[in-house]
């Protein structure tokens, strides 16, 4: 399936099958979650990153069901298809953005998502404490969502942010790597 | 005249030119950043910072209801692991909403000036918009209407004043079907819990930010037609009630 086709599917579902809310409500709710974690973990940003990833994982486990039901798409032929499906359909129908898929590794098992728009980070400025911009990945929940969702469709992946405009970088980029296809159906790990 | 000092200082930042609110903020940060380039936050070279975006950019942007439900659900689950009881949990959710209320207030006023100044303000004490509410009723209308529309794209369903003579400081805002509770299933043994405590916190933040000290709580008041009907009980502090009397006597609206 081509990228354009995936984009069309995403647009179509977004327009016709998605219940909407004000984007700012989502942005602000996410903001309070991160702020609360920073407070609870005493600005130990490594732990905040971890906790966000965990929350995302929990969401991903449930979100995939929703994704499959709303999109009605079948199995992806390869990891390149998966990438387009995540970027152009998944992100589109849940966050109304469509990051760019790029920087493929030569073995086709690793790619980057570049976010021109990141609704989670609207209105956000990281704390000016000399550490947050080096340690906190504000939108880290998204990595967990991908990990959880793909695990439910037999793909073990690893995802992490490599840059973020909130840190002063010029782009917001997430790196996604396929670790392996899970052969046997195992019950999901509890977290 | 009777507005708390907080008002005037906040008004001052906005009073300049209604359409240049965002520019003002930008200048403020540039001033604070440029003298010491080695300190402060790093910014992207393409200047994709919050100061370079128009505050109304996301005003009509949409996201999926599912995303909100997932995030809010995770937030409640996470909070639940760190508390000992229902009251504690509601308190925590309330505290998470509170800072949001403080900030939303500024956003509401900023937007009310950049569009129609008559949408919000019925107070006539100041010539330059935005007008912050001075009286309780104006404040409650702001919450019932513009705040609810910003958050949930519709007004709240009812606004009432306590009929009991013992509690003239109590007001009720009703939402027949709060969005925040749509995807939350509460276990039977916790039937008292109302996760709209988060919204109660937002309301409390708005009230406090306006200089109306208040405590706000969310209560289940189901009816046959609206099983998740929620009443937000707003209790204003004594100082607010006293001021209200003075304003009443002086004919301030």
TrEMBL record, chain A:
UniProt cross-references to InterPro entries, sorted A to Z: Bet3, NO_sig/Golgi_transp_ligand-bd, TRAPP_component
Compartments where located: Endoplasmic reticulum; Golgi apparatus, cis-Golgi network
Keyword line: Endoplasmic reticulum, ER-Golgi transport, Golgi apparatus, Transport
Top-rank taxon, per record: Eukaryota
Subcellular location, principal: endoplasmic reticulum
GO biological process, alphabetically ordered: Golgi vesicle transport; macroautophagy
CDD domains from the UniProt entry: TRAPPC3_bet3
Entry-linked Gene3D superfamilies: Trafficking protein particle complex subunit 3 (3.30.1380.20)
Record's GO cellular component terms: endoplasmic reticulum; Golgi apparatus; TRAPP complex
Record family assignment: Belongs to the TRAPP small subunits family. BET3 subfamily.
Protein name in UniProt: Trafficking protein particle complex subunit BET3
Organism of origin: Penicillium atrosanguineum
UniProtKB/TrEMBL annotation, chain B:
Location of region: Disordered: 1-43
Coiled coil regions, renumbered to chain: none
Gene Ontology terms: cellular component: endoplasmic reticulum; TRAPPI protein complex; TRAPPII protein complex; TRAPPIII protein complex
InterPro entries in alphabetical order: NO_sig/Golgi_transp_ligand-bd (IPR024096), TRAPP-I_su5 (IPR016696), TRAPP_component (IPR007194)
Intracellular or extracellular location(s): Endoplasmic reticulum; Golgi apparatus, cis-Golgi network
Superkingdom, taxonomy of origin: Eukaryota
Example of a GO biological process term: endoplasmic reticulum to Golgi vesicle-mediated transport
Family, as annotated: Belongs to the TRAPP small subunits family. BET3 subfamily.
Quaternary organization: Part of the multisubunit TRAPP (transport protein particle) complex.
Protein name, as recorded: Trafficking protein particle complex subunit
Species of the source: Penicillium atrosanguineum
